[in-house]
Specification:
Length: 387
């Protein structure tokens, strides 16, 4: 017997899932048009250490702080693919779970901006404090971030925000994730793969660092081939690459393909990117993704080098809880593929308030004014989600 289905507008469906506290993840893989929705029927917190061979299929949402907080795992109890940005089909036998208490929703995703004094002076002082730590020999690189209160949501069509971000970041991993236990929704467009392994056993990770605007001062687009990089930016990206190679050496993996660095475009930004690819079947290392995930997170791209020293400086100077910012997220064992991304270019919606996050790598050659400007242009990525 074929189950009958009902068509439901996706924006209403998501809003009602939030109201009924169902964990869900809506996402679009880089350079694709297909959207996937995963909903878990388990409303209890499901937190676990991620082992790709044991965790089953679903979606992972992990915090920055891996020492004290385990990742959330969303089992894919309900899964649907679609492309037309309008309706999804829900089997009638599941309709009782998704009671549509809301039938009308705003058509836009917009913000009532918060008017506040510039935070630039405070951030620049923190950059100077980090530079002092580095010059004192405490670390070589520290990724300092900031949390910006953007204001209050005035029109709360989250799916519209997802659409807007998908259109402006076609090469990013665009996601909308409901975390009901914290009363939070996270929306972002990550340009950075943490670990990825496909159904053929091909593993991949990347070193992504260095940032500049993809638009010049005259408003013209800069082609990746024409981008010029400073010594500071090249060295910042090299820190991450060396760390990845050292992780591979630690587990005695010497057969890998290294490609880069090359300039890549991510939304309104350009970055330096080097990829590392390994055939896990050829080297007989099936659980490489799980091992590398544990070694890599948090990478020097979001933390610094040496890792422990950088984390200590971050804890001392940043003065806020990153939560899921600079953690990782993505689908695991979906169609025999797993893709986890670093949770950057992201924002949090909590109690109708919107908070965005951005950071940058500080070295002894950093200039506080330029570091402030880098966080500002990174914030522009997420601001494109608003109508």
């Amino acid at each position: 017997m074929i189950a009958t289905k009902s068509s439901i507008k996706i924006d209403l469906f998501l809003e009602n899932c939030i109201e009924q506290r169902f964990p869900f993840a809506l996402y679009k893989m880089p350079n694709t048009s297909q959207i996937k929705l995963i909903v878990s029927f388990n409303k209890s917190e499901n937190r676990k250490k991620i082992d790709f061979d044991e965790c089953g299929s679903g979606f992972v949402m992990a915090p920055y702080d891996k020492e004290n907080k385990l990742p959330y795992f969303y089992k894919n109890d309900f899964e649907v693919n679609f492309q037309d940005f309008t309706d999804i089909e829900v089997p009638d036998y599941l309709k009782d779970k998704f009671v549509l208490s809301k039938n009308i929703l705003s058509e836009n995703f917009s913000l009532k901006a918060k008017n506040e004094l510039s935070e630039s002076q405070s951030h620049k002082q923190k950059v100077e404090a980090v530079i002092t730590c580095i010059r004192n020999g405490e670390a070589k690189k520290v990724v300092l971030s900031r949390k910006k209160h953007l204001g209050e949501i005035s029109e709360n069509n989250l799916f519209k925000g997802f659409q807007n971000l998908s259109k402006s970041n076609p090469s990013g991993f665009v996601s909308l994730v409901n975390v009901p236990w914290k009363n939070q929704v996270w929306l972002g467009a990550s340009p950075e793969t943490l670990v990825s392994q496909n159904d053929k056993g091909m593993f991949k990770t990347v070193s992504l660092a260095g940032t500049q605007s993809a638009i010049d001062k005259n408003g013209n687009e800069i082609r990746p081939l024409d981008a010029l990089w400073s010594h500071k930016e090249i060295e910042e990206q090299a820190f991450v690459g060396r760390y990845i190679i050292n992780c591979l050496k630690k587990i005695r993996v010497r057969e890998f393909l290294e490609e880069g660095p090359k300039t890549v475009k991510a939304g309104n930004l350009l970055h330096l990117n080097t990829s590392y690819t390994i055939d896990t079947k050829e080297i007989n290392f099936g659980n490489l993704s799980s091992v590398m995930l544990d070694l890599l997170h948090p990478t020097p791209a979001v933390c610094g080098m040496p890792k422990e020293a950088a984390e200590s400086i971050i804890d001392k100077i940043e003065e806020y809880d990153r939560e899921f910012y600079s953690g990782y997220l993505g689908p695991v064992n979906i169609d025999n593929n797993s893709h986890l991304f670093v949770n950057i270019r992201t924002m949090k919606i909590e109690n109708q308030q919107v908070y965005a996050f951005a950071g940058g790598g500080i070295t002894e050659d950093s200039d506080p004014e330029k570091e402030w400007n880098e966080t500002e242009i990174k914030l522009q990525t997420i601001l494109r989600s608003f109508s």
